[in-house]
């Protein structure tokens, strides 16, 4: 059974950085083949992993809606979409990648989404771990792919407002009836020491706290220089902190 590890949180809180460093951790452990999934419509996980992914599930779905009447003779919608989804799955040596993107045309995508859900369910059997970078609300991921998540990590910035958002997102996950085994809180871009009010705020979320990632110039620089986070050195402060945190939850 594959384990789904998902990262969620509002914009700019470090979701993609976290997802990329979880992938780095799993690759180092040899927990492969691994599937990375970018479920954020403002997709940027591929960039952080140094992978180029030209097509998205969204573009396949839009294309399908436009050309429905012209499917190859004798081919079912399911067979056609399965083939197209498989064509855009970016396959690497130990890491494969799927980007959800966002369909851009009008129409009802329910039937296509249901085929996507089945495709994802079948595909997921090939991987011990699937790491998902989500949009804040997670509606798309839950509706189109999986309703079960093993580990959900909420990212927050260093603000009480950020923590309030996490509490709201966690409630939203329940409203969406997403089945989450373990949920955690991670705070990103912090000072070395967290203030007492903030620590109280963390406690008030009621979500188990994984730890905090200190503001790190090396991470900012990797982004600006377009260096893959997978290639960060083992002695990077952020990598070391992630290893410490992840060894506790993904030993
Ligand atoms: N610990 C850190 N120290 C310094 N910069 C960081 C740290 N973590 C993330 N960043 C930088 O902060 C920015 C936002 O991080 P990231 O892209 O991971 O957030 P996100 O939640 O995925 O954002 P978005 O919602 O835009 O997708 C990026 O430029 C990233 O390089
Ligand atoms: Mg992101």
Describe this structure in words.
- The protein has helices at 15-29, 45-49, 57-67, 77-88, 110-124, 139-144, 160-175, 196-205, 217-225, 237-249, and strands at residues 3-8, 34-39, 95-99, 129-134, 148-156, 179-190, 209-214.
- The chain is an alpha/beta fold and 251 residues long.
- It has a single domain, classed as P-loop containing nucleotide triphosphate hydrolases (Rossmann fold, 3-Layer(aba) Sandwich), CATH 3.40.50.
- Strands 3-2-4-1-5-6-7 form a 7-stranded parallel β-sheet, with helices on both faces.
- α8 links the parallel β6 and β7.
- α3 (57-67) packs antiparallel against α4 and α4 (77-88) crosses α5 (110-124).
- The two termini are 17 Å apart.
- The model has no long low-confidence stretch (mean pLDDT 93).
- Magnesium ion is lined by residues 15-16, 40, 44, 133.
Summed up:
This protein has 251 residues and is of the alpha/beta class.
Q: What percent of residues are in strands?
A: 15-25%
Number of domains as seen in the coordinates: 1
Query: How many angstroms separate the termini?
Result: 17 Å
Our Rg estimate from Cα atoms comes to 19 Å
Instruction: Give the overall shape, derived from the CA principal axes.
Output: globular
Give the name of the CATH superfamily: P-loop containing nucleotide triphosphate hydrolases
Measured as a percent range, the helix fraction is 40-55%
